[in-house]
């Protein structure tokens, strides 16, 4: 299981950050928190997180000192440094440690989420191209399928779904097809045509409205997909009913 470590000694700030992160990642990532620099080093050794949110002014060992040690055994970990100060010396040390982002406190939720999505996508794109079951992506795909089944009637793109589960579009497409057995587009179109058949049977909506109700933005594309799946046009399908 992938994970995110939050290091922050202020209770309100730590709980605030953890709540935002947990809401965004759902069950796809474990989220751990700690207070001191020494705790951060020990947790990083034990859990080996993919991403660390690190406050600078923390007890025992400051955040940058702790990070310098963590980087010796987790050189590729993605790091967001949180600081209440815009002091250039802090930023310079952070750059030397290859920190990915330097946020001034208090960071707003939208900024935190944007950084989180960016780093998760970066982490996913750098992972060795293992078989998806070895890479522990079942939970991502399960969440993606639930999202698709909730949203397929909208203008849902592969990019939107990939962002929802924090993957790059290219990697998500490959993992989805490997796990599910069909491409993302075929899976969504199957759901849409199934709904179209139901609407053709139960309503007198014209074809262009059914196309829109099912999430297609082009009636002619809807007709092509319907014919490919059903072997007949929507109009003839309704007449046969």
Automatic annotation (TrEMBL):
Segments forming domain Response regulatory: 3-120
Stored InterPro entries: CheY-like_superfamily, Homeodomain-like_sf, HTH_AraC, Sig_transdc_resp-reg_receiver
Molecular function GO terms recorded: DNA-binding transcription factor activity; sequence-specific DNA binding
Gene3D superfamilies: 3.40.50.2300, Homeodomain-like
CDD domains, per database record: REC_YesN-like
Domain HTH araC/xylS-type residue range list: 142-240
Name of the protein this chain belongs to: Response regulator
Organism: Vagococcus allomyrinae
Lineage, uppermost ranks: Bacteria, Bacillati, Bacillota, Bacilli, Lactobacillales
